[in-house]
Structure formats: C-alpha cells, structure tokens
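Sanity check record (used in CI):
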Amino acid sequence: MAAPMENMNRLVKKKEEIEADIQALFEVLKSQKGIGMKEPLVDKDGFPRNDIDIHTVRTARHDINCLQNDHQAIMAEIEEELYKIHEAARANNPQRESMDTSDGSQISDEMKERLSPFLEVNKVDDGSPASTAQLQVGDKILQFGSITAQNFKSLQDIASVVQHSKGKPLTLTVSRSNTDVRLSLTPNTWSGKGLLGCNIVPLKKS
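Expected output for 26S proteasome non-ATPase regulatory subunit 9:
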C-alpha cells in the first residue's frame, strides 16, 4: 500500500500546484482592470482596448484554459487512486493488521482517515441528478470526487468540485447500512435548484 499512498500524495501535491498556478493567473487578469475570461478585448468601436495589455490577457487566458484541463485530468487520476486505496482497505489484509512497524502504522492511520465519512446526505429531490445517481438520505460520504475526509475543509470545497464538473461524472463512495457503495453522479442543470438536487451536511468529528 506504500506505493499507492505515495502516488496519491504526489497527485494531491500536483493538484495543489495547478490550483496555485491558476489562482496566480487570475490575479494577473485582475491586474488588467479586473478583466475576466470572457470580457471583450476591443472597445465599443471595435478597436483594441488601450487600457489593458492585450497580449498579457490573451496569454493568461490561454494558460488558465490549459491548466483547467490539467486540473480535470488530475482529479480523475485522484478519484481512481482513491478507489484503489478504498478497495485495498476493504480487503482488510490480515498481514497489514499484524504489522507493528512505524511505516505500517502510519499507512493504516492515514488510510483510515482518508476513507472516513465526512458528509451526510439529508435530502434528495425527486428527478434530480442526485436521485438519478441513486444517492439516498442517510448516506454517509467517504469520497466526493477528489475530496475525502483528509482534504475536506468546508462545503465550499464541494461546491468548487461540482462547478468544475458540470456535465461530467463524479465518483462518490458512500457508506450505506454498513456497506460501501460506489456511485456516479453527474452535476447538471435540471428543473430544480442547483446542479445536484440534494442537501449534504458535514459530519461532526468525534
């Protein structure tokens, strides 16, 4: 399990580096009269704007688009790696339980924390993406895309993943009646509010 955990740490570090680079590029855009990703670079008469550095804006926008694609790709890798770790934890290798080395103990503790429930579903709307994914009230979430108990900070983390994954399937692992269930949830617009159609709340840490 050491190799998968090391790979997971490498992927998470890379993800954080990409996010930092994206944030830095948005700061570059902000320095150009607060321009974003879609505002026109010409004035009302069709001439290039003279109040911003157009080359800087175009370069930053291009780099942001590339990095956002990289971010989506690495999130998919993280999800797959999480699933591998989760499956290994479920196998509950007896040899691992009997290990008394410091490495074995550290891996076991980290795995346990990473796969602990950290959110609970308390509402699912009929006809919503959450309902289609067969998410149920009372499900305790172990993994939401690239987010686990280890890197979860607030519901804003979930909102960010949902916004970046609109129209694309997210892997969820939930604990339901003492059984771990893997679901595929695709955030999208529907007849109700939001992109999921469910309500989730953080679990209090014991």
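The CA atoms of residues 72 and 164 lie 8 Å apart. If this sentence no longer matches the regenerated tokens, the check is flagged for review.
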